[in-house]
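Message: Just now I want nothing more than another pair of eyes on a protein record. I am handing you a single protein, as its sequence and its fold in token form. As I understand it, each token names a local backbone shape. Take your time, and here it is.
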Amino acid sequence: MKETYRLSGHFGAWDAAELAIEKALVAAGIGCDFTPGGDALAHMQALNAIEIQADTAQAGTERFDEAGMLYVDDGRADIGVNFFEQVDWAYRGFGHHEGQPHTNLRGIVTLVQPQYVCFAATKESGITSFDELVHNPRPVRLLTVSKSRTQTRFMGIVHGRVLEECGFTQEIVVEHGGEILTAVDGLDAILEDRVDMVGIPAYPGWGPTWGWSQMWAYLQVRNDLTFLPIPEAVRVKLCAELNITKGQLPRGMFRGLTQDTPTFAMHNHTVIVNAQLGDDEVYELTRALHDHREVFENAPVPFFYNPETGLKDLGAPIHPGARRFYTERGYLSR
């Protein structure tokens, strides 16, 4: 075993999961720390800079990190947490990871904490549906994940593709005198009542001091919101295209969300490790997470780990050390 195992960093809701992992490892007598670097906002700002560089075809566009996955892939970190879908895309070199597959990712645990693709508009804006917006264009101040043509974020791609399939792109927003706001300036815009429509991730709980959950907290308090269902044809097409899953934004999660609303749901999150970690090491890491799994339910954003389904939807191959642990405990057949 190493003296210290490094977690990939602080990235919004996954920060809560990684803090729980830290607690589980420490409880098992395993040392750990975090990769140095900024917080989630600093990471978003860094991705924005890379996207601007790529959009303007500047030379030397760097290989980007999405929420710590590259750090785990290249060995700067030992452990991380990401959506199953993110891990799947990164491992396969799909979408925005084309040309940079993360082939050193291995899965060891599935954590459950639903997150949703979510679109809403303020009542004051008069927007009631995507179709109505397409047929009645107007200046719209749209808060979304990022504004670049060259995306570096999974949720940016998904939200962007929904807008494209609904016939209301960021380019159309700008053409009609609207404005695109992102994670970097979105909270200030919300507090200054400069937002008409949002298309950002949503999840239960108030979460970290910065993040999408904080934006939703202010949005639903300061505004009466209309939540926009994603048309079924769009859901069918994007499920096939992007390997994502239909879901229902559950009523009552936000003020004004009075009925289940069709969208996409990212339920499962994969704890990933670097493939070069030894089998015995990963066995012990997996055991620590299993034996102290209550820490996930007590995180600021609660996650749930059920060992009976702990290897569902990993998005990357299972590490042999984790496979041995699950097999010995009777969760897997040999």
User: Anything to note?
Assistant: The beta strands are 5-7, 32-34, 79-83, 105-122, 141-144, 179-181, 197-202, 225-227, 246-249, 261-274. The chain has a mean pLDDT of 90. The chain is about 40% helix and 20% strand. The longest helix spans residues 40-55.
